[in-house]
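Notebook entry, structure prediction.
Reason for the run: the old model in the group folder had no record of what sequence produced it. Starting over properly, with the input documented here first.
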Amino acid sequence: MKPETKRYRSLMAALLAFAITGPAAAFDLDSDTPIKVSADNARLDDGQGIATYTGAVELEQGNTRLSADRVVLYRTEEGLSRIEASGTPARYRQPTREGEGETDARALNITWSATESRLTFEREAVIEQNGNLFRGDVIHYDTAGRVVTAEGGADAGEGTGRVEMVIQPRSADRRTDRQETDGSSESQ
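New structure, fully documented this time:
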């Protein structure tokens, strides 16, 4: 097998693994749990359906949290449709789907779109989960289809400008559990 093909397959496997264990459905508009917002300042334009919060903004719904310097909420007649957050960086945290660990994402801009079922992390985007790391200039997460796509950016001297991933090996606990169930052992 060519080294390029092997690398491509490894990258695709890593993206698939991240998509399977990636962030859950972000903010859940069908939930009975309200979204709570706190900030230093707020401005509500009820006619336009736009609420702007500035200064140490915190959004919370259950265990999902978003913190930023500035957050803009867009509402339609159907309810909340979009959240735009910016910060140095803005930060999004949520328990993993399996309930073990937490997804911790940060970027200078984070956008959540209810109509597109998409979380977008732009500029200096980093997503960490259980020791795994995903970095790019722009990372899109389709919360309905559970698909992650990423784009590199221009090399600004702080990195390669390419999409980067760090994938942790299986834990020693998993290897031990597997050994006990199949009767095998590994020599070290």
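Summary: The chain has a mean pLDDT of 77.
The old model has been moved to the deprecated folder.
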